[in-house]
Amino acid sequence: MTKTVSALYDSYADASAAVTTLEQAGVDSSDISIVANNSDNWHADDRTSDAAEGAGTGAGIGAAIGGVGGLLTGLGLMAIPGVGPVVAAGWLAATAAGAAAGAAVGGATGGLVGALTNSGVPEDHAHVYAEGVRRGGTLVTAKVDEARAGQAEAVLQQSKSVDVGSRERAYRENGWSSFDEKAPPYDPDEVARERTRYTAL
Q1: What is the DSSP track for 130-195?
Q2: What is the rounded distance in angstroms from the CA atom of residue 191 to the CA atom of residue 179?
Q3: Between 49 and 113, where is the model more confident?
Q4: 77 by DSSP, 3-state: which?
Q5: Model-level pTM?
C-alpha cells in the first residue's frame, strides 16, 4: 500500500534539496512531484518542453521526467487554475492538469486541490498547499510505500519545510478561508511580499 507525503517550502532551493534527498534515499523519480510558483518568471524556459505541452492536456509530464538526472531535469512550464504559472514536474502536475480539465467538463473537484485529495492528502492540508504555491511557495509530493512513509516525511522536514498548521493559522488570521481556483493568481509583487513575509519569520 502506498501513502502520499507532501511538504510546502517557501524557498525553491529548499524544495529541490528535498527532492534530491528523496531520490538519494531510494524514492523513484516517477513517484515524486514538484510544483513551484513561477509568476515572477524566475524559471524562464525558452525551450518548448514535452512536459509543458503535455501538462496542458493532462499527460506528458510524468513521461518526460523518468530519464537520466532525476526529476528536476524534467521541469516544465504550465498554468494551474487559481495558482497561475508554475514550474512543475512529476505525476502531481499531470494529475492536476487532468483534474482541471475533468472538472471543466464534469463539474468534479479539479486542479491542484483535487489532485492532492484524490491522492490521499487531507483536504484542509491540500487547500493550504495550493494556497502556499499560489503565494510563491513550492510543493513537493511523493508516493511511497507505507512502510517508508516515516522516512520520506523525515526527509521532507529536514529541508526547512513549512509547518502546515502554523501557515494555515497565519492565512486565516488575514481573512483566508480556503483555496479558490477562481481567484486571480498573485502577481510578482504580491509573491515577493509573501516570500519576504514568511522567510523573515
Answers
A1: HHHHHTT-EEEEEEEEGGGHHHHHHHHHHTT---HHHHHHHHHHTT--S--TTSPPPPHHHHHHHH
A2: 16
A3: 113
A4: strand
A5: 0.81
